[in-house]
Amino acid sequence: MDIRPFYSGSKIISGSGALDALSFELASVNAEKPLLIASDIERTAEKTVAKALKATAAVIGGICRLQSGEKNSAKTIAETFNRFGCDSLLAIGDADLINAVKAARVELSFGKAPAEIDFTQPAPPRRSVPFVSVAVLTPEIGPLPNELILDSGACITSPLFYPDTVFIDPRVTGKSAAVSKRSEIAAAASIFAVFALSDTQAHPAVRACAHSALQQVCEAIETRSRAEQTRLIANARFLSQIALTGVRFVPEIALLPFLTDGRNPTETLKTLFEAALPTLSFAKDDLSQIVIKLVPNNNAGSGKQTLRSEFETALLRLTQRLVPNSAAPKPSRSELFKAFEAVKESALTAEQKNECLKILQIQMEGTE
Amino acid sequence: MKTPPYFEFQSKVQIFAGSNSLEKIGKDMEIRGVSRPMILSSQTVARSGLLNFIEKGYRPGMETGVIDTDIPADSDLETVRRLAALFTEKACDCLIAVGGGSVIDTAKGVNIAVSLSCSNYDITPYAGAGMVREKLKPLTVVPTTSGSGSEATIVAVIADTAQSKKLLFTSPYLLPNTAVLDPRVTLSLPPLLTAQTGMDALTHACEAFFCLAHNPISDAFALEAIRTIVRYLPTAVAEPSNEEARLQMAIASNLAGTAFSNSMVGMVHSIGHTVGAIAHVPHGACMAILLPYAMEYNARKAGERIGALLTALGNEKTFLSTPKEKRTQAAASSVRRLNEKLKTLTNGAHALCFKEYRSKNGEAPVTQELLPRIANEAINDGSIFYNPEELSKADALRVLEAAYEGVPLN
Q: What single DSSP character describes residue B241?
């Protein structure tokens, strides 16, 4: 009867008008001078956020624009924060940017770089720096909300990394730079949710988040308004990531950084998911709930075997619909071998490495 | 089930659930950088030896600053002041509340007083919505009943006895940092109380699902809670020492608490609060009796959502095989059947209607004469705001009369 711990450290505010609550939310944590940190490719989103703040007579303490892949961005953020005398962090951008803001927050709160802190027993922070983020649609399979990727490539987890609040507003998601990739993002969210459901020791709140993510994807598919569709997909992405924070190690997801060299990460994820699906375990309740979500008016199986095969078919149809098989070939044997070597040298634990290597081996056998 | 155009959701409580979760508090304290808790609890819990399990999990250098079990049934300002002074005197740095709603609310009040350096430990300047705007000291909550869900709420109610009023404190910072759901804590809960608190949790989940402020995430939490309660509540009542059933009920209650604290409750609570206040019927007993009536009463405005509850009260097959127009009634009937099962398992003690409810001394506190007064006051209860259907005094009386006799509303 050991159930994994569950924690969801972010409040979600989703909907048209979500940004109108920005200044209220900042005020509720005694913040009135946020540093706005934005990706250079999300200028439209940045303008929308700035407009929303202005409309509520809120002040922007300073602006820090970062280019994609910029080095030392956490340091830049922390310096800009101090230079403008800001009291909170407001981030708009992709996974890399959010990762940099998490690192900057740690630095500002603890007075030390994240790599110098033992997050299993950190000393209390010197000060508390509120951190809110405005979601944009982003196709990277980036770190989860409780994860921080260090410059060394090592991934550390802590409840301290969650943004305090995540705003999901169709005015922003609908104009994200990656809006054309929304189907891919929906597919990744669905796959994340299904992986989360396959951990039978997870806290039931994980199942709630995962089912809710799948529900959002189903609704998005049926929605005509592009802006609303992107909001639902952003909701699904957020929920599926929260679900994943509460489950066991998922090797198929951990492998992605090793296999996406020049490849579309969602297509790679889909390939790994399709291979893993028959081997995953699920509660019967989850199978029928998902079949009914994906195939309305279905009788959800007359026996366990039938239900399981209906479930797999429905999921494969969903991912195929969202990410049709492309002309891009699956990872070659040499690419898989390269990943194999990289995993062996990685910062993963021995047990995690073994799980990943097993999967790569199976994939390599399939390329014979 | 369409996602509303705007919603908010939060559940920022670290949850530890499992057989030996009490022992995990020490590790959690270590991560939070604290080592000297004030433990608030009841005398019954302290006598049971459960607090020893918490201390067993302490890391080197940790020790309990003080244990206090002298907490009134209704948390009040005087107790908060006394305990805040004790917290400071004993150099504590965090709080652990092991108990029901009063113990938890008292702990929240003490936390405001000691974290925000209140003058003379007076927390009244922080009463109201959103007045607490800073992080407080770490608070761990171990709920000892599986029903209230107060370990998942942002609210504390503390009585100002001098002014004869209750002060409401709401702030996201009042959410406990950690909730510990350990089956050993509820093993001694008697069958009737288990049934009543379980039905309280079921009501939280059902109302969270069909009342006006629901959202897709609270819906998912509510449905998970309902599935678990339907499956495990009868077992927890029939076999009080069944740890699996106890654990699942604690988890379900927490999920339901999270759901309703994000989407509010409705008329079951409006009427139930009033029956409790006027006739002193336990909250869970009121919830159990009134829930199916609220489902029937709200059928016109929220029939589709109430019908959708069948997927959790029964299963997907039950839902699909029931004609659309009959799903609401089928959902209400499912709740009645669960109540009947609980009545059998408690040898008739779990009441199906107000007429058959008996207090500990065998009296029938709800009389037909009281119903008009209850109806009159129920419509002014705050929870009515989120009920799908308007509720007039005459409507409330009609519901109460049916719930008194135990006959379906339609």
A: T
